[in-house]
Amino acid sequence: MPRDTGFPRADAESDFLRARRAQVLSRLAAWLRREPDDVNIMLPFEEVTAALGVLGERRLGLQVIPLDSIVGSVDRNRDFDRRFRPTSARVRQRWERLAMAQRRGESIPPIDVYRVGELHFVRDGHHRVSVAHALGLSTIDAYVTAVRTKLSATGIRYRGDLIVKDYRRVFLERVPLTGEARAAIVVADPWDYAELGEAVEAWGFRLMQDEGRFLDRATVASRWYTEEFVPVVRMIRQADLLGDRTEAEAYLWVIRERYRLIRTHRWDDAVLNELRHRRPR
């Protein structure tokens, strides 16, 4: 906790001014480093859950949670930044009342949060989280509701990360891979998920034409992975065409180049020999 002078009101005022100064300096530093605009913005709960896909929720009751795990808000609160530092003087009066109460050792009600993976989003208690940060605390009491999602929240740091998650969720709805196959398909550019989804669906259409029967999405996804993706990735590695890309990115590159150069969907030595001369960037 910051220095205690024995005068709670003066200390609370100092706490608020220090938190505001830190917020202004952080915003200036982000601007000087040319960081994205969303680097200091809270993650919006609705956007996160929309990108990941909600399966359900369950109340877990009162728990002690790390302050650093609280990264967002349910109500798009603009009074605080990502680290819950005040963005203006509008919250000062209420903020200082809470800081005084905290310094006097008074009982502070638990906050209310949603949990998505290891991330927490405030439903009620933004000021309490802000004061706790300013006073150097590392944990806070919270009533927790866990939200189950289709995709993991791992890797989400900023709002920009939600685009990749959203496109991956849609891809997996179109191509319902499971287990090892699901984990193997990873790309950095969200648009690649859309292109890959189209490629798998086209492959499945050709497969159904060849076999003269309808196949559901799950069957197409499973057969594409085992009959197309795995063998092609093996050939890519043998031909030293992987480069510094993921297997899924390399697969996309070679099928683009194969069709652009040779206008074919087949795989043979002639195709690979042609592609060897056009290695990934």
From TrEMBL:
Record protein name field: Chromosome partitioning protein ParB
